[in-house]
């Protein structure tokens, strides 16, 4: 991963080289704390050890009984789906990957109608084995397979904790069961069994994914000027403190559209607490130049834009044309056009005084993805240290879970009572 | 469209009923200005007349030569694609709709490889006929059809202005050509030829779409308490002024995921200028409860969440289960679960003092979509009036267009020179 901070120096908000140098002492302290956490396999910090602790053979063996299926369907939500989806959306495969990460009934039944259930592998992911959305969807999927005359026990595996419903189910029906690693929150689990089982089924190179991540881990150091991941984490933190409360993540590659979703969870759930936290906004280049750029350049001075691109890609030539005023396109390629738009947008943000950071990888391949995912995780952990928040927890989501459970008759919860007390001011 | 403002009263930030009543005088003035603009068919305001001025027969006739194709491919970007995509993603059809709205070469060639080019209709959309991304992609598509032995002139239509490249091309090859209506910026064109031609090919009911929009237009009035669209526009404006600089648009329906994209363009490009403008953040319920909710509840007090749902939907029963602790799910449906999550999230935001607005339509069908799209457009126009911005322009995107064109050798532009002057601070 390559990070270029040039366009945050002197923008509004912005941060000076001198300020980054002053911050670097705190980066050294934070790095020491992080390294200690990694050495002790502390909760959360253990995620940064995944390049070493994940065993790709264990994953490949667990799914080896599913030979060359037409599709793989992951039933999971949040961190149980986003890491795997980021990898499968980024890389080509003959095995199609689908994700049941919502409980919209029309969408669920539409997807099940379209899937070749007799040639689909089902991957149920929930650490606790009790996530309501995931288990409800699994029950629906299982029934659909039964109805289609498909033996679901032959086509299902689970990724779950040491105990619980899904573990019991696996034992009872002799399903392959991958463990969710200890100490790794869902949003940091892309490089574990949670994110890599689908990649294995799709035939991707797990070793290269982990090697890319290990390379990025090797670059962690006590100075933000020596580690791309820390350069990104420290600078985004410094910019937030100076008013860039929004971080627009804007990859210039369709294959990285899901990466922006993954990043949004990582950033929001890890850093959004105690009244602080930078808000991630998902964008996509070049498309969103025609949607969000007006706001980024001319709106409030509360934004940082992160521009991500691969340095190399397969290209497509634009045919020559005699269309009026468009001859300049002929002889160029779509890749040239996309690169020109990337650099033009970057410069146009700088010209409008809007801070922006360039993040690059060599290619959108296993190695590049490993670097990018690990790099952003380490950046997030550093940011959390600098902002003294509890990076690895998400206490604010519990309230709604209890309320929903109460509403469905799953127990007495005072939160459910609050729902019926809703204040109304209706306009129809 | 139904709007419930109850959960913005007394939150932080929040707005009181009394403040809304005080604002209502300005809503009346703004309504008068808007009605005058509509009566004069002024630039931008003319968009709010589309339910009357769009002729569905003209659209149906233009595409009538394409009988029951397998797919329709729209080549367009920004407002030339998002309206049509919002409708086609929301409604089921046997005709698949695709959108080439980016110039990523790997993605473009991948999509063209997968498309049945001999049974695909191509819809090229650009008002000026010179949009670089759209024309470059069209040249690539045309060549791909030639290479596949498909006569592109038999399968292509254009949606464009009265003059320009695409109009000339249509004249030369006798292609159907739909006019982009005068005075309607791209992001307000969903209910015109630009948004409805694909819907016609997909067999959707254009009359119902326009009737839904007309219903919403009929509800515009001099008081925010009488018009759902103005209730939404006035309240989001008042909340922004009180610190809710981010508006998270969170539909609880997979079919409305694209609607959030469309809304993000409408809001960002219309209102983001002069240093003001609320930043739209795209979200999706229930999925993003496991991604963004932690931040919304516990992060900075700078957010409003808009929760959107259809009141009715096709449902799917959750099978009974003896899985430990999950028996409460059996007997419920996925729709019950989704509704419980919606209401739980709404209440959990209120309990955390985070303002939220409920927006509902009866169903995700043509009529409901017409209401929703028109309602949000009118809300945006009202917001723009209240904030005294130039709602219908997007001047800040020109800089980057010139720079990109200069980089590709399409003329001398000083903006292109700025690109090579980039300041660098690289960490590798």
From TrEMBL, chains A, B:
<dbReference type="InterPro" id="IPR018189">
    <property type="entry name" value="Phosphoglucose_isomerase_CS"/>
</dbReference>
<dbReference type="InterPro" id="IPR046348">
    <property type="entry name" value="SIS_dom_sf"/>
</dbReference>
<dbReference type="GO" id="GO:0006096">
    <property type="term" value="P:glycolytic process"/>
</dbReference>
<dbReference type="GO" id="GO:0051156">
    <property type="term" value="P:glucose 6-phosphate metabolic process"/>
</dbReference>
<keyword id="KW-0963">Cytoplasm</keyword>
<comment type="similarity">
    <text>Belongs to the GPI family.</text>
</comment>
<feature type="active site">
    <location>
        <position position="401"/>
    </location>
</feature>
<keyword id="KW-0312">Gluconeogenesis</keyword>
<dbReference type="InterPro" id="IPR035482">
    <property type="entry name" value="SIS_PGI_2"/>
</dbReference>
<feature type="active site">
    <location>
        <position position="290"/>
    </location>
</feature>
<dbReference type="GO" id="GO:0005829">
    <property type="term" value="C:cytosol"/>
</dbReference>
<keyword id="KW-0324">Glycolysis</keyword>
<dbReference type="InterPro" id="IPR035476">
    <property type="entry name" value="SIS_PGI_1"/>
</dbReference>
<keyword id="KW-0413">Isomerase</keyword>
<dbReference type="Pfam" id="PF00342">
    <property type="entry name" value="PGI"/>
</dbReference>
<dbReference type="GO" id="GO:0048029">
    <property type="term" value="F:monosaccharide binding"/>
</dbReference>
<dbReference type="InterPro" id="IPR001347">
    <property type="entry name" value="SIS_dom"/>
</dbReference>
<comment type="pathway">
    <text>Carbohydrate biosynthesis; gluconeogenesis.</text>
</comment>
<dbReference type="GO" id="GO:0006094">
    <property type="term" value="P:gluconeogenesis"/>
</dbReference>
<feature type="domain" description="SIS">
    <location>
        <begin position="62"/>
        <end position="209"/>
    </location>
</feature>
<dbReference type="GO" id="GO:0097367">
    <property type="term" value="F:carbohydrate derivative binding"/>
</dbReference>
<comment type="pathway">
    <text>Carbohydrate degradation; glycolysis; D-glyceraldehyde 3-phosphate and glycerone phosphate from D-glucose: step 2/4.</text>
</comment>
<dbReference type="InterPro" id="IPR001672">
    <property type="entry name" value="G6P_Isomerase"/>
</dbReference>
<feature type="active site" description="Proton donor">
    <location>
        <position position="269"/>
    </location>
</feature>
<comment type="function">
    <text>Catalyzes the reversible isomerization of glucose-6-phosphate to fructose-6-phosphate.</text>
</comment>
<protein>
    <recommendedName>
        <fullName>Probable glucose-6-phosphate isomerase</fullName>
        <ecNumber>5.3.1.9</ecNumber>
    </recommendedName>
</protein>
<dbReference type="GO" id="GO:0004347">
    <property type="term" value="F:glucose-6-phosphate isomerase activity"/>
</dbReference>
